[in-house]
Amino acid sequence: MNRYIFGFVLFVISAIIASVLGPVAFVYTILRSIFRMSRTELQMLFGRLFYFMAYSIDQFGNVIGQYLFNDTLISRNSTYKFGNPDVTISAVLGMNKKNKTLSKLGTYICNILNYIDPNHVEKAADSEIINRKQRWK
């Protein structure tokens, strides 16, 4: 099978599985946790669970929105582009902020994210890109 068709088939299958099993698994996790965990354990689980789900959605957004984001949030001479499935949108924004290659819209989005969580994009770039590269040397 052609690798491009294979990738598309895998996407369709994974989207169907996620659409069907995702909600079932989520409800099961919540109900199981409510009946089997203490209040403290439950709070820790939900904090972690929701964080990782948000992180995964952010990585997905980085991939699915790569062309839109590359065209609207960063300058053409940027060396760090959107589309890497291993990093979040915030990390790419942070790298481009550091390299001074953000567009006006990209700067505006960074300012909003940094207002909600101080130094959010800088921390994301440091933890996901800069420190990760150093760990693998």
How would you describe what is shown here?
This protein is an all-alpha fold. The chain has a domain at 62-135. It has 6 helices and no strands. The longest helix is centred in the N-terminal third of the chain and has 34 residues, at 3-36. The relative contact order is 0.08. The mean pLDDT is 88.
What labels describe this entry?
single chain, flat, about 140 residues, mainly alpha
Concise overview:
The protein is mainly α and 137 residues long.
The sequence of SSEs as H and E is HHHHHH
Unreliable runs: none
In quaternary terms, these chains amount to single chain
Sheet with the most strands, sense and barrel status: none
Average of the residue pLDDT scores: 88
Structural class: mainly alpha
Q: Radius of gyration over alpha carbons? A: 18 Å
Number of strands: 0
Helix count from the secondary structure assignment: 6
Task: Please bin the fraction of helical residues.
Answer: over 70%
| Fraction in beta strands | under 5%
Kindly report how far apart the N and C termini lie.
36 Å
Shape: flat
Question: Secondary structure elements and their pairing?
Answer:
Layout: H1 3-36, H2 39-64, H3 66-72, H4 89-98, H5 104-116, H6 120-135
Helix pairs in contact: 4-5, 4-6
